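Appendix B. Chain record.
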Amino acid sequence: MDNCYAIEDLVPVVHPTAFVHPTAVLIGDVEVGPGCYVGPCASLRGDFARVIMREGSNIQDGCIMHGFPGGDAIIDVDGHVGHGAVIHGAHVGRNVLIGIQAVLMDNAVIGEDAVIGAMTYVPERMVVPPKSLVVGTPARIVRTLADKDLGWKRGGTLEYQELTRRCLATLRPVKPLTAPQENRPRYEGRISRTLSEVRGTAAAGE
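Structure tokens predicted for this chain:
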């Protein structure tokens, strides 16, 4: 991988079943586990803290993982980190969803099955109980998540785990077409659904 860099004797580790996009950058003490997905332009910098992605987790386009020396930045099993989020020395628990452009600061601990809303700021050392919905700047705990919420989150994570397999099997550089082909194909996987669809409110526009 041209996008992986050692610093001193710290060399990134990527499991063979993980996918790291060619534009993502891994530096130093980084561990990407089985079945993980690292999206375009993500930056995992293990030049200070250890950066760990555990099995089945994903970190999407433009995300950053970093931390202070001696610490850890962790995404636990089946963790799901949305576009542009920052994980700075925090521990994202098992089956947690981090929303788009959320920021998690050092030594924050997000309990398993929690959801951190888009653009939420989680301050240093905040502890989020399991199955909590957290939103706002600074973050506040809103309620306990229902099974329907957790099922919706699981669908999105499964979609990214399937994307990992699709990328390993078929992603390759190409020259763009000059016009769409006749009967242009589209992805019809549909493992995941929007939250409004899950809640049955899509028709009402909620």
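Further analysis of this model is presented in Appendix C.
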